[in-house]
Write a structure and sequence with these properties.
The complex is a heterodimer of chains A (426) and B (157). Chain A is of the alpha/beta class and 426 residues long. In chain A, α7 links the parallel β11 and β12. Chain B is of the alpha+beta class and 157 residues long. Chain B has a seven-stranded antiparallel β-sheet with strand order 2-1-5-6-7-4-3. Classes of the chains: A alpha/beta (426), B alpha+beta (157). The interface between A and B is medium-sized, with 26 and 27 residues. The structure holds iron/sulfur cluster (SF4). Iron/sulfur cluster binds next to α4 of chain A.
């Protein structure tokens, strides 16, 4: 990416790593450089049903929920990253590197361009059909449940205690998302979810699972009690929709004691993601001070392992923020040592049936890393790390169904899991 | 222009003829499976393969082919023994388009509401070879007469 001035270009990386998909390398590059969408492409996206404008939205409205862009996919079905601040809701500013790509229409087809050069054809993702409808009390359904390519996402708890108490993870830029609301669900808000999910399911062949996104809140009589209760309320609401039939639901939430995990399972949860974020213990303490305080590295690691007993192999996923371990002055100075640390963590987890995913570090305004002017990892580092995580997963025949290219789409290492899904053991 | 003749097109569109899909994984292991009604042809000459098992070996191999630019082969065999092998490249995996939805609906209509469709693979045919046994034998006799057993010459025509 040229930050250090001597990093390899995308073209050079494609040649150097012939067993790493070219499209995934381009996807990584779009995540860092960003993608600008031309007016012609917006018009085409609109025609393809990939843009939703709330009735009250103005032409140039970028307010929350008013204009939603369904995004685009590459030929392999993976999402085009870097579109966050293109035409959709602008939640926070990401530091970009180099010139952005362009999404334009060439000879009637949507293309990703680098300057004038055609890089890859892309395909718009339609927005969910339930967008534009309202619940019985008049709440716009697009504000209740978010539909991405294949997943229905619900923000169960929009509050992160760590942000409020200056203990936020140093890379996290979700300050607006997780500090503005500290509300718990009411009967009415649960009914909104119930009605929206029922409406969403009318769109046949679209959704394969649910994801709950939950801010960390360690408060309560027992660790993270408040968060647990909110999760259970919402998952019980989904159980009302499905009756006795199981449905795939993953939680992106905090580490909680095993008896709480059993309650989750009874309430319909099928996979959990208690993200450790950084494997090296000392760096974890520095980079994730909230998680370190409530209740430490061992607590988060042990919770993930305990989760496998409840949810099964591959249904517990811990995330590493790929590149956070290189932050200075405390992080690794040597990339080889950083890779070794990540691989040691992934192998340890894999031995216990816990799968890992790499969330590549992007510097977001509002985060401490952004203020500190930390650097993004090089593309080559990301390629080596994510390939290594994939190789470890494959060595252990460990799946990552709950967090793969369809169920999430932002993790290059879990994109690669498509190569060996047939070898997975549960 | 399409490399597919009208006869090959008709076979690809016929849900009841034998259709075999051959793919290779990233370790070089071949995987060959009957896919009959799951293989279809679009009007623009693109072959569609409808995958119903997301974690299938075929699915892994097809993404390997798309990512690393490898060929796949499809053999079709008509009721009269006519047989063709088509080689092509995997162009796209699709699970969100209107066409995907159409196939999803059709599948459910045919197989019941509990049927699954993981995605559609679009394959661009690059070459076709007539593999009908009588055609292949005649071709071999003409091109490689040294490969024939002599006693066959004594067989009355
Ligand atoms: S990444 Fe850390 S600070 Fe940000 S919302 Fe999650 S737990 Fe809170």
């Amino acid at each position: 990416m040229g930050q250090a001035g001597n990093d390899l270009s995308v073209k050079e990386l494609i040649v150097k790593y012939p067993d790493y998909p070219r499209i995934t390398i381009i996807k990584l590059d779009t995540a860092y450089r960003g993608v600008q969408v031309t007016a012609a492409a917006v018009a085409q996206a609109e025609q393809d049903g990939a843009i939703f404008r709330a009735p009250e939205a103005k032409e140039d409205d970028k307010g929350e929920g008013e204009l939603v862009f369904g995004g685009a996919q590459f030929r392999d079905g993976s999402i085009v990253r870097g579109l966050e601040d293109s035409i959709s809701v602008k939640k926070y500013h990401l530091q970009r590197i180099g010139n952005p790509y362009t999404l334009d229409i060439v000879d009637g087809k949507a293309w990703l361009l680098d300057g004038e050069k055609k890089v890859e054809p892309v395909f718009f993702t339609p927005v969910p059909q339930f967008y534009g409808k309202t619940t019985s009390r008049g709440i716009p359904m697009n504000k209740v449940v978010r539909g991405s390519s294949n997943v229905l996402g619900i923000n169960v708890y929009n509050y992160c205690y760590f942000w409020k108490h200056k203990l936020a993870c140093q890379y996290c830029g979700s300050v607006q998302n997780f500090t503005t609301k500290n509300e718990t669900h009411t009967e009415a808000s649960l009914q909104d979810i119930y009605e929206t999910v029922n409406e969403a399911l009318k769109e046949q062949g679209r959704w394969t699972s649910f994801a709950f996104i939950v801010g960390s809140d360690p408060q309560g009589e027992r660790p993270y009690d408040r968060e647990v209760e909110e999760i259970i309320k919402v998952s019980r609401t989904l159980q009302r929709v499905f009756g006795k039939r199981p449905f795939p639901l993953r939680l992106i939430s905090s580490a909680v004691p095993q008896d709480q995990l059993l309650r989750y399972r009874d309430a319909g949860v099928t996979a959990i993601e208690p993200h450790l974020e950084v494997w090296d213990k000392q760096l974890f303490n520095i980079i994730c001070p909230g998680k370190a305080k409530f209740f430490g590295w061992d607590y988060w690691v042990n919770n993930a392992i305990a989760g496998v007993e409840v949810f099964g192999r591959g249904n517990v996923c811990s995330q590493f923020v790929c590149g956070a371990e290189l932050s200075q002055p405390h992080g690794f100075k040597d990339e080889e040592a950083a890779l070794r640390s990540n691989f040691e963590g992934a192998a340890f987890f894999a031995r216990h049936g816990v799968t890992t995913s790499a969330n590549i570090l992007r510097l977001a305004q509002g985060s401490l890393f952004y203020a500190q002017k930390q650097k993004h990892p090089s593309l080559e580092y990301v390629i080596r790390l994510t390939k290594g995580l994939h190789d470890i997963r494959r060595q252990y025949h460990l799946g990552v169904d709950c967090n793969d290219f369809k169920r999430c789409g932002i993790h290059p290492d879990t994109d690669l899991a498509r190569l060996f899904n047939h070898e997975v053991e549960v | 222009m399409s490399v597919l003749s009208p006869e090959v097109k008709a076979l690809l569109k016929d849900p009841d003829v034998f259709k075999v899909l051959a793919t290779v994984d990233d370790k070089g292991h071949p995987h060959v499976v009957f896919k009959n009604h799951k293989i279809d042809l679009l009007d623009d000459g693109t072959i569609v393969y409808a995958e119903v098992i997301e974690s299938s070996h075929t699915n892994s191999n097809l993404i390997h082919s798309l990512w690393f630019d490898k060929h796949v082969a499809i053999t079709v065999k008509g009721r009269d023994g006519t047989s063709y092998q088509i080689k092509g490249k995997v162009e796209r995996y699709d699970f969100v388009s209107n066409l995907f939805r159409e196939y999803y609906r059709k599948l459910r209509a045919r197989k019941g509401p509990d049927s699954e469709l993981s995605g559609l693979w679009y394959i661009r045919p690059e070459s076709v070879k007539d593999e009908t046994p009588s055609v292949r034998r005649a071709e071999e006799d003409t091109k490689h007469p040294f490969f024939r057993h002599l006693d066959r010459e004594l067989v009355a025509a």
